[in-house]
Amino acid sequence: MHRRLISYATMKYILVTGGVISGIGKGIIASSVGTLLKSCGLHVTAIKIDPYINIDAGTFSPYEHGHAHKCLLNVCIGEVFVLDDGGEVDLDLGNYERFLDIRLTRDNNLTTGKIYQSVINKERKGDYLGKTVQVVPHITDAIQEWVMNQSKVSVDGDGVEPQVCVIELGGTVGDIESMPFIEAFRQFQFKVKRENFCNIHVSLVPQPNTTGEQKTKPTQNSVRELRGLGLSPDLIMCRCTMPLETAVKEKISMFCHVEPTQVICVHDVSSVYRVPLLLEDQGVVSYFCQRLNLPVEMRPRKMLSKWKEMADRSDRLLEHVSIALVGKYTKLSDSYTSVIKALEHSALAISYKLEVKYIDSADLEPATLQDEPVKYHEAWQKLCSSNGVLVPGGFGVRGTEGKMLAINWARKQNKPFLGVCLGMQLAVCEFARNVLGWEDANSTEFNPDSKYPVVIDMPEHNPGQMGGTMRLGQRRTIFKSQNSVLRKLYGDVDHVDERHRHRFEVNPELKHHFEEKGLQFVGQDVAGERMEIIQLEEHCYFIGVQYHPEFTSRPIKPSPPYFGLLLASAGKLQSYLAKGCRLSPRDTYSDRSGGSSPDVDIAELKLPSLS
Ligand code: GLN
Questions:
Q1: 71 C-alpha to ligand 1 centroid (Å)
Q2: How far is CA 342 from CA 323, 416, 590, in A?
């Protein structure tokens, strides 16, 4: 142990702001800083601030009455990330959960909408005694209070209050939307005292082809802007393609009024796993220890060695495994991020390089053959040449027939298949149509008049609320069978708690028809009314889950359904199971995991390419 006993009640806040442009990896950098401090034995939490006016990232209120056609809107926006408490939040919260192996709540995602809503509610209740309510001080006070309260919420599942809170402010400094937040933190730094608050400013150092020189001007400008608003950067983290030249570092130091050691180079690296290591190499941990007076020894604990191991492994992968991701691809969507991460975690755990073959399911449909035959044949070529097939969650009828065609192919060809949420529902529809002979079997979401409604509307009815709500957040699934593959992959547990986001479900009344023909419902909810996991007999790996296991996948703890898909696709599932699985429900990477997911000890999965 490289750590003395810590006993202080003071929270340490690290605010991460962005300059120049957004989308340069601020979230990854903020998560990596958190990871470093967690490696020192500290309890770390994170808050993401999105200065937009929406209340959350869900497209319609889960309290909305009426039917799911309203959620067609979901088709038009990017994916959301779902938390245990059902919070539909920004994808960045997924970064924090994955990097820090923590579990956040909806209030860890703060938006302008949420702050204004809370202030307006207070105003309506008369809490401001009829005074004029203003951005300063009312909104800014509410922001500070929110951050202070939320930073204390335990995220490790052990009830321990965090010691460090990383706060990521979305967007770039100078945006109109983020002004109240910047002002709130300007005041906050004095309120909590200097030794408890610091700022990381993530900036861009471009290197235009014309001269090939690294340019510091955008960084100078954004730091000036930040200072003008009353915040001084403690670390300037420079995103760049190549390592920063010494002269460039010195220039930034001089013009931005910081020591050269406070200029950190975050150049492009081979994988995200390298980022914490890159920061550690530049003394970021010792800087924080001094600046924030953190009573920890300098060397991050064992956990960081796992990151090194993952980074090295990821650089050396030789063998490929390809997964067809049969989904819906719209121009606007930043779809399937969590799904792809989950696939990557599993591929890395078995030392394979992941190749995702993106297939728009509508391209597999006969109508495409007529209109665009090349597209159709290309899509089928991609599908047929993949090692495994994944049909992810989704909303809306477009492409559902194509997804069923892909599922049909995987079922008949004995190709590894995983259906997630909508993917599982469509696997049930496909089976009903082609095995049970129920011709127009469908989900009532897509055909309310189907003669065989095998998937039906089953919203949750919560007391005190009108109408049914979408089933959101963590719910329990009980394993009904001792020999289900998934049960083994989860570490031979009786139940699993996974996150949900759906409204439709397999019609429980029809269950026996499927089971008689070999499609087993091996996991159900506690009451036995909701079908959670399907498994097809006599198939190498044909699994469907009503929940979204991707939301709890971690680099060091891949999600078991995805892990099974990757093992099967690499032709290793049988030998893995025969060896008694190296999965255990205990987390060997962190002493304080609150997760129920089992652990794949990557160090133990020795594969030739690593030796
Ligand atoms: N549209 C389906 C439902 O509402 C599936 C949702 C999903 O895949 N997340 O049940």
A1: 9
A2: 12, 16, 19
